[in-house]
Design brief:
The chain has 81 residues and is α+β, with helices and mostly antiparallel strands. The protein has a domain at 1-35. Helices cover 28% and strands 10% of the residues. The protein contains 3 helices and 2 strands; from the N terminus they run E-E-H-H-H. It has helices at 19-24, 46-50, 60-71, and strands spanning 7-10, 13-16. The protein has a two-stranded antiparallel sheet with strand order 1-2. The protein starts with 6 loop residues before the first strand and ends in a 10-residue tail after the last helix. The mean pLDDT is 82.
């Protein structure tokens, strides 16, 4: 018998997403699995994927202090009228 079912791969195990799939198989029965991934990847939030990427690499408090102190430095000559 040939059937196509949806399954989720989690912790090294394929888990059927359709309840009737479990009814058609016996415990311990071997099956042949063909894996087909979605054609287009699901949209992701790029900002959330990069969250925490710099953690531990940059001292954020020191960086903020440097930014604020650099804002106090003026490099322009005074305006003349």
């Amino acid at each position: 018998m040939v059937r196509t079912i949806r399954a989720r791969f989690s912790k090294g195990v394929f888990e059927p997403l359709e309840l009737e799939a479990a009814d058609t198989l016996r415990e311990g029965e071997e099956v042949l699995i063909t894996i087909s991934t979605p054609v287009a990847p699901l949209p992701t939030d790029s900002v959330m994927e990069t969250a925490g990427g710099w953690k531990g690499l940059v001292d954020a408090e020191n960086l903020k202090r440097n930014i604020y102190s650099d804002r106090l430095i003026t490099t322009r000559p005074p305006a003349t009228l």
